[in-house]
Specification:
Structural class: alpha+beta
Radius of gyration: 40 Å
Number of strands: 15
Distance between the termini: 109 Å
Order of helices and strands: HHHHHEEEEEEEEEEHEEEHHEE
Shape: globular
Helix content: 25-40%
Oligomer: single chain
Largest sheet: 8 strands, antiparallel
Length: 361
């Protein structure tokens, strides 16, 4: 009996030592599973490797998808720790779950790729300067340098005009072609097929470059008529041009101008500089209103808004003949005619007509 009790008391001591050793082994195994070594824990270790691959995919991405990859990596690590605690029997099942969660990291990389694609599309849209959807737009880019403008769009007026109108190798806002007009007196390019289809309001946009400073005398650049006229007629005209070295609106009917031809009136307009491109937008409304914007900025001194403003449109608003010059649109002309303004070389680019505002690219 004494010997039996001695053996019985030594058994708990042996069990304590065994379980203590096993506990140390299990603690060590769990530490490896949560670290970088894939050798302990069987399939759980494989899951850890998958998660490590997922993590770089997340780090390489930019968008929200990459963050999802990082979450997958943490879940995979949790699966590995579970495998060690569950023991040998539970390791394959929990380890497989850890691998599945690690796979989420790959999905995160795919999200980053999608976000990059949308950025490229945005840049392309912002760079577009296509004007083919407008009622009329001539960039002169598809006409050879030295050649006249397209005869399908433009008619030389008068047909025997002195001077020349040919495509040149300089252009506005980065283009490579424009139309160079050299006019000692009167030379226009006329289109009769478009402006009459626009309705009550015609929007005109063109780029302009002058070869020299404007003279004090009067000259015309843009002309419209309410009814058809022959190539020699200079009556019944609405004109956008110059006087006093600045831009002006006037007609052939009387002395009304926008702005007034006076120091105060001229000061309200714009004096262009030679050899500089300007984007000019004109709005011509059959109700009598006129508007001018230069380089995207409205010019109050070149506006007729129906309210008589001293030094601007006071004489024009009270002039029935002036208002009658654009109650309708029969043609559109651009070029240069001198009424004391002298010979001038002018470049035009991106000449366009539309029923809605066009803007400057």
């Amino acid at each position: 009996m004494p010997n039996h009790h001695a053996r019985a008391s030594s058994l708990p001591l042996l069990e304590t030592l065994v379980f203590s050793a096993l506990g140390s082994l299990l603690f060590a195994t769990a530490g490896c599973s949560s670290g970088t070594s894939p050798t302990l824990g069987g399939p759980s270790g494989a899951g850890g490797t998958m998660n490590a691959a997922g993590a770089p995919a997340s780090a390489g991405g930019v968008g929200g998808g990459g963050a999802g990859g990082a979450t997958g990596a943490v879940s995979g690590a949790g699966g590995s720790a579970g495998a060690a605690l569950a023991g040998a029997a539970g390791a394959p099942v929990v380890g497989a779950a850890g691998m599945g969660m690690g796979g989420s990291g790959v999905a995160g990389a795919a999200g980053a790729s999608s976000a990059g694609g949308s950025g490229v599309a945005g840049a392309g849209a912002g760079a577009s300067t296509d004007c083919s959807a407008l009622a009329l737009c001539d960039t002169f880019e598809d006409t050879a340098v030295g050649a006249p403008p397209k005869s399908s769009l433009w008619t030389l007026v008068p047909s025997a005009a002195s001077g020349s109108a040919t495509v040149d190798s300089i252009g506005a806002h980065g283009s490579t072609h424009s139309l160079k007009v050299v006019s000692p007196d009167r030379l226009y390019l006329r289109n009769t097929s478009v402006i009459g289809t626009l309705g009550a309001v015609a929007h005109v946009r063109f780029y302009l470059r002058l070869g020299s400073t404007l003279a004090d005398g009067h000259g015309a650049m843009i002309v419209t008529h309410p009814t058809m006229v022959d190539q020699y007629s200079q009556s019944n005209e609405l004109r956008f041009g110059s006087q006093g070295q600045v831009f002006h609106w006037n007609t052939d009917s009387d002395a009304a101008n926008i702005p007034d031809v006076s120091p105060d009136g001229n000061a309200a307009s714009v004096k262009p500089t030679a050899n500089t491109w300007y984007c000019i937008e004109l709005t011509i409304n059959t109700n009598g209103h006129l508007n001018t914007a230069i380089d995207g900025v409205d010019v109050p001194g070149l506006t007729e808004d129906g309210t008589a403003t001293p030094n601007i449109d006071q004489a024009w608003v009270g002039s029935a003949p002036s208002l009658a010059r654009y109650t309708a649109f029969a043609d559109f002309n651009f070029g240069w005619q001198s009424y004391g303004g002298g010979a001038l070389t002018v470049w035009y680019d991106d000449v366009a007509l539309s029923s809605t505002p066009i803007g400057c690219p």
